[in-house]
Amino acid sequence: MKKKLVLFLSLMLAFSMALAGCSDSSSSGGSSEGGSKGSKGDKLEIFSWWTGAGEEDGLKALLKLFDEKNPDIPVQNAAVAGGAGTNAKAVLASRMQGNDPPATFQVHGGAELNSGWVAADKMEPLNDLYEKEGWKDKFPQSLIDMVSKDGNIYSVPVNIHRGNVLWYNKKVFADNGITPPKTFDEFFAAADKLKKAGVTPLSLGDKEPWTATMLFENILVGTMGVEDYGKLWTGEIPLDDAKVKESAEIFKKMLGYVNEDHSSRNWQDASQMVGKGEAAMNVMGDWAKGYFVNDLKLKTNEDFGYITTPGTEGKFVVITDTFGLPKGVKKPEDVKKFLSVLGSVEGQDAFNPLKGSIPARTDADQSKYDEYGKQTIADFGKAELAASLAHGSAAPEGFLTKVNQAVNIFVTQKDVNQFIDSLKAASGDLKK
Ligand code: GAL
User: Fold this and answer.
1) Where is the signal peptide (predicted)?
2) Residue with CA closest to ligand 1 atom 11
3) How far does residue 87's CA lie from ligand 1's centre (Å)?
C-alpha cells in the first residue's frame, strides 16, 4: 500500500513537473547546459533518464564530445531521474501530447519506439541520415530492425545493454565455496548454502517495480528459451502457458532469498549490496557494471564477477537505448548533428565504456572496453537475441505497465494463480 502511494506520488510529481515545463536540467550535463526551459529556448534539449550514480557518466562524455565538435550549438541536458525511465517516460508522454517535444529523447528500440511514438506519427524517418553517414552496414541488421517500421528507420542506437547478467561478489563466493550458478538448480543450491551461512543470497531493489519484472523476464528466457519467450508477446503462446507458470513458481522461490528491505531500495542500492559484500548476487542489466566501476571503484573480475542468469547461456537479452528526431522540433538539422555524433565510432566509444554497455556499431574500437565489454561484444555476435520486456522492447507500453503492476503485487502476495490471471488479463494490451 505504502509503496503504491510512493509510486503514485512520484508519477504525480513527474506530471506536474511536465505541466510546469520545468523538466530537470540541473543534473550534470555537458559544458553548455542550463538556462532555457523546455524546447522554447534555443538550446538543444537532450532528454533521457540518465542522472546520478551509474547513469550519467556516459551521457556527460557524449555531451562533451558534441560540444567540442559543435561549439556553436548549445545543449541542455534535460534528464529526469528514475531508473528505466520510471518518471521520464511520463514527463515525455505529457510533452509529446502537448506538442512540446524535446529536440531528441532516449527511447528503447522495438515496441517502445515503433508501437509508441512512430505509430502515433510523432517521429521523422532518418533514412537520409543513415545514407549520408553510411550507417546501414555499420549497425547490426538486428538493431536496425528494432528501430525501423514499414521500411523507414526512426532512431539511432547509442548502445547495447545486456539484460541477462547475474553479478556476484567474488569474495563472498570464494568464502562460501560457491561457483557461479548456470542452472536454476545450481542457483538454489548456492542460495541455500549462503542463507545457512547468514549471507543474503540475492539482492533486489524493487522500489521501482521494473527491477522485479527484469528478474521475471530472465526466468522466462531461462525456462522457455528465446523463441518461445518471443512468442509470448506475439500472442502465439498464451500467458497462462505451463512454462509461464513454472517460471512464476521459480520467481516465487527466488523471492524467498532476497533482502527483506527490497521494496525500499532502488537498483543502485541492490547493486551496492553485492559490491559491498552484503549480498552475494544480483540480477541486473550491465549498467550495473558502470556503477560498480565508476561509482563504487570496484575492479571487474577481481571484486565482482558475472555470469549469464540461470538457463540463459548463449542467449542475450537486448536493451538498446536510441535517439530519434521528433516531428515539430525547431532545429531538425541541429538534432541530426547530435545524432551524427552519437552514431559515430567516436561518440559510441566515448559513451559506452563508461555506461557499461557495448557499442551498437560493429566497427568500434574494442581496445577501449574492459574484459567484460570485450566478452559481451563477442557474445552479442553469436548469441540468440531476446528483446527485453521490462525495458519496453518486446511489447507495447500499456501492456508493460500492467505487467509491472502484476509483478509488484506478486512480490508481496506471492500468489502464482492470481499473478498468471493478471498477466492473462493484460494480454489484450499486447496488440495496442
Ligand atoms: C534502462 C536503460 C539503461 C539504464 C537503465 C537503468 O531502461 O536502457 O540505459 O539507464 O534503464 O535506468
Assistant:
1) 1-20
2) 84
3) 12
